[in-house]
């Protein structure tokens, strides 16, 4: 018979061992929910407890008689269920306990492996990050070096332009000086000729 039940939930429902309170609660709960549809379960259960305490002796005696009759029937059903399924329930509970224990052991064993794999993945990420940073750093240095070289070239070009400009200005000034000197010499020569001509006339 046990082979037909793979899990404890597959067993027929076990009869509940009732108390006077649970018996009274099961009777009153549907009524109170109907009268108080918006009330919370905790409030309804508190009402049930209050109502049970406030029962008169006659009402309590009647409730007790009904409960005892049901308890006998329920107790007999519970005993029959236990005789029929008690051993099966015990084995299934032990089996479930072993499964839980095995699952926990496997989880504990897998944690170091997962941690090691996680560390390897993290180390790989760190290495990639370092390589990327080095690569970016190298690119940055290359760009900086290229920028410095371009600046040096621009300085040389600007210096050459300035030297050419200075040389051009010097040549222009030299030419002006020569022209002025030639003009001055011409004026002197012209003045000399005028004086000589004037002296001859006298």
From TrEMBL:
Annotated Low complexity bias: 107-121
This protein's UniProt keywords: DNA-binding, Nucleus
UniProt keyword annotation of Nucleus present: yes
Domain of life: Eukaryota
Chain residues forming the annotated DNA-binding region: 14-82
Keyword Nucleus annotated: yes
GO molecular function, one term: DNA binding
A Pfam entry, by short name: HMG_box
Region (Disordered): 96-202
Cellular component, GO, one term: nucleus
Domain HMG box intervals: 14-82
Transmembrane segments annotated in the record for this chain: none
Coiled-coil ranges from the UniProt annotation: none
Protein name stated in the entry: HMG box domain-containing protein
Native organism: Ichthyophthirius multifiliis
């Amino acid at each position: 018979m046990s082979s037909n039940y793979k899990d404890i939930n597959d067993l027929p429902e076990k009869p509940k061992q009732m108390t006077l309170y649970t018996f009274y609660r099961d009777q009153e709960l549907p009524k109170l929910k109907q009268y108080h549809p918006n009330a919370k379960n905790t409030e309804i259960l508190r009402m049930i407890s209050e109502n049970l305490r406030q029962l008169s002796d006659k009402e309590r005696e009647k409730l007790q008689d009904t409960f005892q009759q049901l308890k006998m029937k329920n107790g007999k059903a519970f005993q029959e269920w236990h005789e029929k399924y008690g051993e099966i329930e015990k084995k299934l509970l032990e089996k479930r306990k072993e499964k839980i224990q095995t699952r926990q052991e496997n989880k504990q064993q897998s944690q170091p492996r997962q941690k090691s794999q996680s560390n390897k993945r993290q180390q790989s990420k760190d290495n990639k990050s370092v390589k990327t940073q080095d690569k970016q750093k190298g690119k940055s240095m290359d760009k900086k070096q290229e920028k410095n070289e371009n600046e040096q070239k621009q300085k040389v070009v600007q210096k050459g332009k300035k030297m050419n400009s200075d040389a051009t200005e010097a040549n222009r000034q030299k030419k002006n000086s020569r022209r002025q000197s030639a003009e001055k010499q011409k004026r002197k020569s012209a003045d000399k000729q005028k004086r000589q001509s004037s002296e001859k006339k006298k």
